[in-house]
Structures are given as C-alpha cells and as structure tokens.
Design goal:
This protein is an alpha/beta fold. It contains 16 helices and 12 strands.
Length: 498
C-alpha cells in the first residue's frame, strides 16, 4: 500500500510539473510578439518593497534620474507606461495611491501583506544595427510583489511536521524572553497530545505561537526566520483550520498518531497549510518568475544586535535556497522556467553617510555569502547592492565651534527622537547617524565581545520623511530621487533593453 501511495504521489507531482511547463509554453508563445519579463520583488518586514516598486515605476515613466540604466543614459528610452496586468485574479499594485502618499503627503505608504501585480510597458530604441532599422523595441515588465515571509515558507515543502516542529522549537527555546508564554502553553498540553482533539486547545496553542512570532518581528528584536509566514500575514485565511496549528514537542514520540487525537489533527492542519497555501503560491506565482530582487533591511538588524544579524543571514540563505537558479536556453526556459538573475539589495542607504555605503554592501555580501556561492555554482547571476529607493536625506557638513562634522540633512518623521530631542515632522535637521565599523565581523555574535568596548560607536538611525519633489528652472517636476536604483534596474533589465 505504501508503494502505491508513493507512486500516486509521484504521478501527481509529475502532472503538476507538466501543467507548469504548459503554462510556461503558453507564456513563451505570447512573448514571441512582445517579450515579457516577470520580476519578483520581495523582502522581509520593513525592507521597503512598496517604496521600491513605486520609485521604479515613477522614474521609468518620468524618464529621469536613471543615468546608470544604459537604455536611459544613452537616450534610447522612448517611454514607459502602465498597462492592464495579465493576471485578472491577482490584486493590482496600487501605484497611484502609493505615489500620492509619497509625493503629496510626504509619508511612507503602508506595507502590503498580500501578493500584487503591475504591468509596465517599456518602449525603447534598440542598440543593435538590425533591430534599430526594423523598428522600435518593446518590453512588458510584469512586477510581482509578494511578502518575503511567504518565500521562507517554501522550505516547508521539504519538511514533514516532525522536522518543522523540531526546528521551530529550537528557535523558540533560544529566545525564552519572547517565547515563554508559548512554551508554557505547550508544556501544559504535552500530556494531551494523544487525547481527543480539542479546538480550544488548538486555538490557544496557535494564538500563543503567533504572538511569539509577532514579538520576534518587532523592531527591537528584528528576527527574520519566522515560518509559517501566513501566521503573521493571514489575509483572508485568518481563522481557518489551516492556520490553527502549532509546532509540538515530538522528541519522545515515534509512533503514528491515532486518528482524532490532538497530535493527529495538528499534523493534518500543517499538511493542509502546505497543500492549500504554500504549494499554490509556488505553482501559480513563484515558479513563473524570470528575475528576482530581494530587499534587505540590514540597518534595523544592526540596531537590534548580533543575534538579529545572524538570524537574518540564516533567513537569506533559506530564501536563496528556495530559488531554482540557473542560466536557461530559450528552449529550456519553456520547459522549465528558471530565475536567472537575483539581486540582493540593502535598503535605506540614505540613512548612512556616503562613505558607509560600501560598508553596507560588503555587510550584505557577508550575510548571503554561502547562499550566493551556491547560486553562482548553479549558473544564476547574483549581485549585491546598497540602495535607497527614495533618497530622503542629503549629505551635509555642519560647522560648530570651528570644527566640521559630516551629517545627514533631512526632515525626521513626527515623534522621532534623539536623546531628549523630539522632532515635529516639519523642520529639517542635520543628524550624525554614527559609522559602520571598518571590521564588520564585530557586528556578528560569533565575534562579539561579552561587553561592548567603551569607544564602540553607537548607531542611531532616524526615520526621515520622503523629500519634496524638485523642480527645474523651467518648472518641470522631477522624479523621486534615489541612490543606485538605476544600477539595480540595469542588472535586472539591462540585457533585455539592449
């Protein structure tokens, strides 16, 4: 019987792969008329996905501030315009509202907690002699925005309930300050695992587990490895049985649970989560991407301390492990679509002095070093970059008592504080944020002294309001300012706009 079940399972997987290949074949047939690139944009909490997409589209439509995007820098970019997206069953990315929030209210838009999509059509003049004389080029850019927490869930496809429970409890026990209530609840019901299922117990376990995950994500902790991702972003799945389970302590339990018990139902709901939430996301969205950018809020992790940085490194390695990287020939991409370019981008570079931008990029490269090596070995092009999707500060020099001090000039968000100063959100301020250390290894727990040295620089990152849009002498309003957004676009799209 077990052999028959295995054969049936393999047959279902083969059928699913065949359907995905057929979908890719259909997409490729459409691409023969107008090429399409599906760009995945993801990142963990506070990484700035919404701002990145809004700034990307705004700058391409306005046609300015992109000198390092070769097609724009050489004057070959004719125009870019929004078009109806191809997937009618996916929410549209609310570009217009987000731009109004950024430029008119000068506030940061609310984060999105679901998948969304936007199509941008780019018209350009080809750089090749033959294409130039055959007419203008056109590219559909389909931007797929999804939470990074969902990407971490793909690892669950490789984990049964026992392994998921073991890894989740290992992380929870490492932070008893955050997980005490959940662990106490788990201990209280340990003897009930083989008793008849109780919905009340299941809800209590799921609630305390979700509360623990929420505490982990708070800015002062900034932990990233928090699967299952939908527990923190349930959307329309909130309250469903597929989200009403929790990891259990199965160390001494090796027998198959009896049907109808608490243990059996928790295992069943975990499998339902994988079947009805994780697998559809992989099949319907993730498996159809061509290029990917992963936005990383390394500064918040630095503020939270070495443990948060170590956890972020593990999360990024897990994220890259979810990709199926590799360079694909045209024919091979039809049969098995693969992401062939992945960009890891450390956001909020405008919160640092210019000299620290390179340090931030080096730090990011260290965070994903093992994962990058794994991806490059299999053929994908992987890069790291420090950027600011919207530059909210300017570099400045403050003169005080005959001394010059480098600083950042911008308008802090309302109620931001430094020492005993509270900002009102209206006046500009010159702020020195501190420096990243030359030896970045000191930021990680493995190289952290038990007590910080007295001369160690304390970093303080203040949130700034989006800037006022600048105007030219002729009265034209310029696009949103940024740091290296054009470099990111050149890596992700440059070869398709040649």
């Amino acid at each position: 019987m077990s052999q028959l079940n295995s054969l049936l399972k393999n047959a279902k997987l083969a059928l699913s792969d065949a359907q995905t290949a057929l979908d890719n074949l259909t997409d490729s047939a459409i691409d023969l008329t107008t090429p399409t690139i599906r760009l995945g944009v993801t990142g963990l909490a506070r990484s700035g996905k919404t701002v990145f997409i809004s700034a990307l589209v705004h700058n391409l439509i306005a046609g300015g501030r992109l000198p390092l995007l070769e097609v724009a820098g050489t004057g070959r970019l004719a125009r870019a315009c929004l078009q109806p997206q191809p997937d009618d069953n996916v929410p549209r990315f609310n570009y217009e509202q987000h731009i109004d929030t950024l430029t008119k209210e000068r506030l940061w838009p609310q984060s999105t907690h679901q998948i969304s999509e936007l199509r941008l059509t780019i018209e350009y003049e080809s750089a090749t002699f033959l294409s130039k004389h055959l007419g203008g080029g056109k590219l559909h850019l389909d931007i797929v925005d999804y939470p990074g927490e969902w990407l971490l869930d793909l690892a669950l496809l490789r984990q049964d309930f026992r392994r998921f429970s073991a890894e989740a409890l290992k992380r929870a026990k490492a932070r008893p300050d955050l997980s005490a209530d959940f662990l106490k609840t788990l201990t209280r019901y340990q003897d009930s695992l083989h008793e008849e299922f109780s919905e009340q117990i299941a809800k209590e376990l799921a609630t305390t587990f979700t509360t623990y995950l929420s505490r982990c994500r708070e800015e002062e902790n900034a932990l990233s490895m928090l699967p299952p991702g939908r527990f923190l972003m349930p959307g329309d799945m909130k309250g469903t049985p597929a989200l009403t389970f929790a990891p259990l302590d199965l160390g001494s339990i090796h027998t198959k649970p009896k049907t109808g018990t608490l243990l059996a139902m928790m295992e069943r709901r975990y499998e339902a989560y994988r079947k009805h939430i994780v697998r559809p996301f992989f099949k319907n969205h993730f498996a159809k991407l061509d290029r990917q950018i992963v936005l990383v809020d390394a500064l918040t992790a630095i503020n939270a301390g070495p443990e948060a940085l170590d956890d972020l490194s593990n999360a990024l390695s897990e994220i890259l492990g979810a990709f199926r990287p590799g360079k694909s020939s045209w024919l091979f991409s039809i049969l098995s679509r693969k992401i062939d370019r992945i960009l890891f981008a450390a956001t909020k570079a405008d919160h640092l002095r210019r000299k620290d931008h390179d340090h931030l990029e080096i730090l990011l490269k260290q965070l994903v070093e093992k994962a990058i090596n794994r991806a490059e070995f299999s053929g994908a092009s992987v890069e790291t970059l420090a950027l600011a999707s919207v530059r909210a500060t300017r570099q400045a020099t403050v003169h005080h008592n005959g001394a010059e001090t480098p600083a950042l000039l911008g308008t802090p968000m309302p109620d931001e504080t430094i020492a005993d100063i509270r900002f009102d959100g209206q006046e500009e301020a010159a702020i020195f944020p501190g420096d990243l250390p030359d030896d970045l290894s000191t930021l990680f727990s493995a190289n952290q002294e038990t007590e910080a040295s007295e001369d160690q620089t304390i970093l303080k990152y203040v949130r700034f309001r989006p800037p006022k849009l600048e105007r030219t002498a002729e009265g034209l309003t310029l696009s949103l300012p940024h740091i290296r957004l054009d470099s990111a676009l050149e890596f992700l799209l440059g070869d398709k706009l040649a």
